[in-house]
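agent: user wants the structure for Phosphatidylglycerol--prolipoprotein diacylglyceryl transferase from Paralcaligenes ureilyticus. delegating to structure tool.
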Amino acid sequence: MLHYPHFDPIALQVGPLAIHWYGLMYLCGFALVWVLGRWRINHGKSDLTVNDLEDIIFYSVLGVVVGGRLGYVLFYQPSVYFARPLEIFYLWQGGMSFHGGLLGVILVLLLIARKKKKSLLEIGDFVAPLIPLGLAAGRLGNFINGELWGRPTTMPWGMVFPQTHDGIPRHPSQLYEMGLEGFALFALVWWFSSKPRPVGQTSAVFLMGYGTFRFLVEFTRAPDYFLGLLLGGLSMGQLLSLPMILIGAIIFVLSAKKSSHASTR
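agent: tool returned. relaying tokens verbatim.
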């Protein structure tokens, strides 16, 4: 059994200004997107420019925040926020959804694709390999905050989180997600994108990979106390991940067929 190491959620404080670790993790995530994106551009992996990359990052920040917050409101606690709509803007109280943030980023990429006269999947294939390390940084932020802990376990690496106030060893599911949705997904999508692929398949691998890893990790992650387990004993995170896997599989198959037809003409 392990004990959760105490972290001060505030990384740096200058007078009344407090910089939290979680916010720093977001900054690190977008910085990693910028570094990896420049590498791909400089190595001829895309005909986008560095200015295009910076536009994608800037507007994606808005997509993540707005989409993530609205996704949490709509997917997780609609009745609470519809009763008190002003609290939707209380971002400092927490409450963000990855799946909502993803939809926000997809909308941003769609608008940028139109501006650049490209398809959404072309832009998505460029962006997909850049995302997982940013997700890893975010999950590290969850761990530092001592939030989104796992279900009880008897495994030797079970961790007691003081925030639960029950002294029960639990899965450090934040670290599982950092390893799978972050590092493992990065290795998979980066490797897959290292060779020429039909348009859309890199995006599809990201969707299927994230959806699968998230679905599996959710078996160790404690469900939201206000929701519990839902249809078929699955969590909300699992139910939202299933469409990702399905859509990714459809895109992968259709892009392969389209590429095959184009090569036989």
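agent: one observation worth passing along. The chain has a mean pLDDT of 92.
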